[in-house]
């Protein structure tokens, strides 16, 4: 196994966190968050991000405990060879399926909104070829790409909802009242999937420089993503109302069109927005798929040549797999199944790993204290 240089700084880790979390979910979050909570849909996001903070705190703890190691190495150390190997396999499988799902959703957005006469397969293949090219380089290239594209992602993601407030009907956000806290919890779990991507830090923390602030990088990244999603949801409710949002497939794109009517100089501003959004989806899928092939490389103790070959080999069945859903309804149904798998990989496994390691540390310290007392 080749030694990797540890050269990820705090800002690069923050960029990876943000780019991994913001993706296709940005276009659908105003609708999914208001299904049960209606005008209080933003409250569900708050519930979801609290769960994320617990999982991220667990990952930061593991990153500090196992400096220079990815989850491929420390999962078997904590859980044992067989259970740890199962967790590694689930992690790799989830990232692969998630990358495919995001790629298919990306293709659906482009076909329905901008390029209706272009075959879905062509759009998806083009994106996957770019991802393969990224995977043919060492991991520091991934960090540079994320760092370079982060301003192009954040600026429109924040600016467009804020400008759309010019057309807001603030009464749509009233009354501020929760009818059922069960709906708050359920919405938080249902919309939790838009925050996934932070679990990739279990791979990328291993390459942080010794002085990098893991806690600051991860929590700053999650907080920025949370702010982006919340203002997008509030803008969607204020402009359209929660009833109208339920009839929209891509509500955030409709916000872009409203922003255009507010006085932007471009004739098809949604096309320009999607062009920028492509960079977001590329980094999101790129980070997931890179984590997949890189984890395989570390698991099997291979080099960059294996990573390049496996990226090309794996992408072929992934392409056919993501074409299985026949329409957008089936696609969302498969997405719901993936969300349930995500609970295990992104919440349960990191938290259990952190708890187990914490208990082991306590037991180890207690034994050391007893040995010292026995020696004296």
Kindly describe this structure.
The protein is an all-alpha fold. The protein has one domain (12-375): Amino acid/polyamine transporter I. It contains 15 helices and no strands. The radius of gyration is 21 Å and the shape is globular.
Structure described in brief:
With 376 residues, the protein is mostly helical.
Topology:
Layout: H1 10-21, H2 25-32, H3 41-65, H4 71-79, H5 81-113, H6 120-135, H7 139-164, H8 181-190, H9 201-204, H10 214-240, H11 242-245, H12 251-261, H13 269-299, H14 304-322, H15 328-375
Helix pairs in contact: 1-7, 1-10, 1-13, 2-10, 3-8, 3-10, 3-15, 4-5, 5-6, 5-13, 5-14, 5-15, 6-13, 6-14, 7-10, 7-12, 7-13, 10-12, 13-14
CATH class: Mainly Alpha
How much beta, percentage-wise?
under 5%
CATH 4th-level superfamily: Amino acid/polyamine transporter I
Fraction of residues in helices?
over 70%
Question: N-to-C terminal Cα separation, in Å?
Answer: 44 Å
- Overall structural class, as computed from helix and strand content, comes to mainly alpha
CATH architecture name: Up-down Bundle
Molecular shape: globular
Enumerate how many helices there are, as a single number. Answer: 15
Number of domains: 1
Segments where pLDDT lies below 50 for 5+ residues? none
Oligomer status: single chain
Instruction: Tell me the radius of gyration.
Output: 21 Å
Mean pLDDT score: 87
The helix/strand series, from N terminus to C terminus, equals HHHHHHHHHHHHHHH
What is the number of E strands?
Answer: 0
Index terms:
376 residues; mainly alpha; 15 helices; 75% helix
